[in-house]
## 1
Amino acid sequence: MSLLLGCIADDFTGATDLASMLVKHGMTTVQVIGVPNGALPEADAVVIALKSRTIPAGDAVAQSLAAAEALLAAGARQLLFKYCSTFDSTDEGNIGPVADALLKRLGAGFALACPAFPANGRSIYQGHLFAGSHLLSESGMENHPLTPMRDPNLVRVLGRQTEGSVGLVPFAVVERGAGAIRDAMTRLAEGGRRYGIIDAVTDAHLLAIGEAAAKHPLITGGSGIAMGLPANFRAAGLLPERPDAAVLPAPQGMCAVVAGSCSRATLGQIGFARDHVPVLELDALALPDAAALAAQALEWVQGKLSADRPVVIAASAPPDKVAALQARLGRDAAGVLVEDAMAAVAAGLVARGVGRLVVAGGETSGAVVSRLGVQQLRIGAEIDPGVPWTFAAPTGIHLALKSGNFGGRDFFLKAFEHG
């Protein structure tokens, strides 16, 4: 088995989301945690999960280039830079600077940019990103504690981050299919554009965009853009049919959820779970000490763990409480407090027999897998769009790493019906 697609993701849940998409479309996929030190595992696709979304842009570029070198050395025929379907970033980056560096490394002059994921309500029309029926800037993402998104026009947003210029392949062109999209991207590149934002409001659009980009050295976007890529390798005779791509070992052990995300979706999932399973909501503002919060959670969980239903431990909070905690501790320190607390909780739960663990939030997921010593994730079946179960090596536990924005209101219960 040779490596076909090499992927670099800027957070851990996004990496899992992407890997799930590839497995769903018939590619065996392994997620590697952090820049690998040695040889990559055998798979059709390898996703290297970084925690680079909100770090300084120079550090994000360095880590992404190191990941690219590992993938290219393993023979990857195409690279995909995956970021959030809500284009989480600031005017300083990190999407633009990382994409610029990858293009330069590959000797390429143009890449598409398409974070659309219609199954989760993310669509792009006339260059504007929508979350459901709302413009991104009116979706709640304008209140994100780390990457507030207040401009829905991706041509403008990416244009402020890159050294190059940004064009648009509009809806009317995308509707005409892969050939028209390919021609439009060629015109943008020949006209000196470094990137093209591609409109997409349906899965059919994403499949056409993927087909149009079959020969692109670099693709950038959300996980949705990956749905059209396996067919390109299959058409080239490089990818056989793989009906067992999502098979994992049987799950064992107790069930639990830890949540650090403050997104509307996660807050709604916590509220739904509260009426069905034991839920503990930690208050980092009242007790701003990671070790103390973890001790409180692990004391509370005694006698509540079960193999049949989860317990939920959350440090999530609405925007006003997040703002108050950041005002008290500083933005970065407030984030680290929650991440450290939830990582310690997760480690304590695993030590108490939890073998199936859902983690909500990208930053929280990064902290948890680091604390647990997870090095690789084998990707299994999807629970909800963008969120699969995975098997974590070398721990032997099953993990579902959920982007804060993903999943239906019943996700924390539904996950264990699939596990």
Note: The mean pLDDT is 94.
## 2
Amino acid sequence: MSDIFDETEENLRADKWASIVKRALPWVIGVLVAALVITLAVAGYGAWQNSASTKASEIYAAAIESLAKGDKAVAKTKFEEAAKVGNKTYTAMSYQHLAGIALDDKNAPEAIKDLDLAAKATSIPMISDGAALKSALLAMDTAPYADIEKRLTPLTKEGRPYSALAKEALAMAKLQKGDVKGARSDLQVLSVTLGTPDGVKQRASAFVAAIDSGAITTAQALVKLPEAPMPVMPQMQPGAQMQQMPAQ
């Protein structure tokens, strides 16, 4: 990102934020979800102690091992199995990994489907909303605005863990469909709202500046660029040996 700050032309610098937002949001969500590692480890350990979930934990562990070895085909099969027989936590985690595998295979529709399933699998907002937001971001380039709005609006409600990011994404969707006035209004509010993360405020302000400078055409084109690879749920081993493993 350092090259952005080397630009001498203000409009070009503002335009580059458009691509940064689309590419960075999945990573931001991934970092936030990573904060759940300890909580999920505890939940996973409890599941491991429950005989009804032992099978799921063993299958999930085998999937993680296969993924670490680079055997995506076996890992995919195991994650699919774990998603069907596990408790809600294992199901959501498995579908997140399946989405990551699908994206690695350049299959965005499959990733969207898996993320939707992950979002429905658990009632833990940090997990379900994160999956739903990533799904909406992936769908943004192909789905009609009405569908994106339907996906994002519930996530923008007060108290939801990713409300600011969802509002930012909704503004990007408006910008992408040509509703410049609506996008600017939403971004302006985000840029001054107390409690909005600093990164969101800065990007919102940059977009408002780009719109006001007349650089909107370039900004709209950049919003349509493909997203960066999406991080999946942190990997964990079940039982007493459970630990955080590198994200795939």
Note: The domain at 2-245 is CATH 1.25.40 (Serine Threonine Protein Phosphatase 5, Tetratricopeptide repeat).
